[in-house]
Design a protein that fits this description.
heterodimer, A: mainly beta, Porin, eight-stranded antiparallel beta barrel, 2 helices, B: mainly beta, six-stranded antiparallel beta sheet, 11 strands
């Protein structure tokens, strides 16, 4: 008897739950605040500015394009200089994994996980690398000022939250792990910093704090 | 760059030649044109490490084996090798040829031409007495 009632209730709820969701539900333009703050704290040694555009498909899939400009102007303790400045881009998709409870109020808040493919084509310079000829005497200064432009590609796993703080205004954060796909070759004059990726290492991570407007 | 000092003995019955490390009673080495001495009357030594000139393609050493002096001239090519922004740049070398005077030394052979971080612990040149 009890089992029959539950089954009956399910049948009633089902049509209400499967409200047809439109494929396209507008897009959000968002700017990153975290990278601006970190750039200011890094005192010009490294800097990065980025913004993105994200499309809402079925309130479930969120394809995203992120574009930015980043660079470095670093001098080491040994006075070796590294400079670069270039645009970068990332393309990917986020999935909203926030399950709507049947009894809760409808919300536009999102809990996102996603993937990105990042790329930057950039030129860089390494200057004032000093070689000292310890025993024989003398020094030589090596400059790598005409390294041809290089392309670095990396992938990212991201997780983030978006909260609608005012109508159509969203704030949120994203954390990301980054892994280079294009590894350097032995003997190359490798870049210290990759725009959009950060300080060059096999693995890296980043944080964004975004503010966006939904159209 | 490492050099080993060898002595060749000939076995008269089998007519085979065997080279073995020669332990020197005294060895003094300095770069020609440099005041600083690399090895100063060092006892019981058969292997030496010498710095190649990073800014020239010729490195010349005055080597005194016991009481006999020879000049060892090494002709080499230098390459800039970038390590990282933190470690900077180093020079690596390729030994092209070695010329010696023959007061104490009989002959010379190059076993490893490349002088870099991966060969730094190996012997590059054999000097024969």
């Amino acid at each position: 008897m009890t089992a029959y009632t539950v089954q009956a209730q399910k049948k009633i709820i089902e049509p209400a739950d499967t409200v047809r969701v439109a494929l396209y539900n507008g897009f959000t333009i968002q700017a990153d605040i975290a990278s601006t703050v970190t750039s200011a704290l890094a005192n010009g040694e490294t800097y990065s500015y980025e913004a993105g555009i994200q499309v809402d498909l079925k309130h479930k899939y969120y394809p995203i394009l992120e574009l930015g400009v980043a660079g470095a102007n670093k001098t080491t303790a040994d006075n070796i200089g590294f400079t670069t400045n270039a645009p970068f881009g990332r393309i990917g998709v986020d999935f909203n994994i926030l399950k709507k409870k049947p009894d809760s109020k409808p919300t536009n808040n999102l809990f996102l996980v996603g993937l990105r493919l990042g790329m930057s084509n950039f030129k860089y310079k390494i200057t004032n690398a000093t070689i000292s000829n310890d025993y024989w005497g003398g020094t030589e200064v090596v400059d790598y000022s005409s390294i041809p432009a290089t392309t670095k590609v990396w992938w990212e796993i991201i997780a983030g939250v978006r909260v609608e703080i005012l109508k159509n205004v969203y704030m949120g954060w994203t954390v990301r792990t980054k892994n280079l796909l294009t590894q350097g070759t032995e003997g190359e004059v490798a870049p210290w910093y990759i725009p959009g990726y950060g300080i060059s290492a096999s693995g890296n991570w980043g944080i964004n704090y975004t503010i966006g407007y939904h159209f | 760059m490492q050099l080993g000092v060898y002595h060749v003995t000939v076995n008269t019955t089998t007519k085979t030649r065997t080279a073995a490390y020669l332990s020197l009673d005294s060895l003094t080495v300095k770069g020609i044109g440099v005041d600083s001495i690399l090895y100063n009357n060092t006892k019981r030594i058969s292997s030496i490490t010498l710095p190649l000139n990073k800014l020239d393609t010729v490195s010349r050493f005055q080597v005194t084996f016991n009481n006999t002096t020879d000049t060892v001239t090494i002709l080499h090519t230098n390459y800039d090798t970038y390590l990282s922004l933190e470690c900077g740049c180093i020079k690596t070398h390729t030994v092209d040829s070695v010329i010696t005077t023959n007061h104490f030394l009989d002959s010379v052979s190059i076993t490893i031409h490349d002088v870099n971080t991966s060969t730094s612990a190996k012997e590059h040149i054999k000097l024969y007495n």
